[in-house]
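hi! just following up on the protien thing from before. the input was this:
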Amino acid sequence: MKSQLYRCEWAKSVLAVVYHDTEWGIPQHDDRMLFEHLFLDTMQAGLSWELMLRKRENFRVAFSGFDPEAIARYDERRVEKLLRDPGIVRNRQKIEATTRNARAFLEVQGEYGRFDSYLWEFVGGKPLRNRWRSLKEIPNRSPQAEALSADLKSRGFSFVGPTTCYAFMQAVGMINDHVVGCFRHAEVAPLSSSRK
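and the predicted 3d structure came back as:
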């Protein structure tokens, strides 16, 4: 009989399992992917992550492949078009925030060369590795997430509170929050945090 892998309790649906097993918690240094994750986490505020996973491809089509340069140019007409798209989250504040965030993201890139260079400073350039034993032990914010949130807000980003920033940091591997019993905890731990 084949033994089953143990994974983090939140990975229950097929989409969540694939995301958990192949993407969540892997140190990410590609600016385009960092923007995509920031986009999804800001859109998710107050909603379920499962909904974001189900709508991810619709978001990709509706929002120019998560290209921050294209999104930064969105005008009111484009926002109105997006508000009529049933495949995405039709929240005016969040849609307008994505354009502001794209502009702010590009400004950070201009200042640091890469968003990656700016972002990873908040964890000293390498992933923080936690050793939680269960989902209930995992916090929804940290001092690093609070610092990132405050700095992003000072740069004009929206929907980037400490809880959103913590989820973002988990997603892009700045924090390894796979529980210790999860097979991905050990797999993710040795991954290099070197920038490409």
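The radius of gyration is 17 Å.
Residues 192-196 have pLDDT under 50 and may be disordered.
cheers
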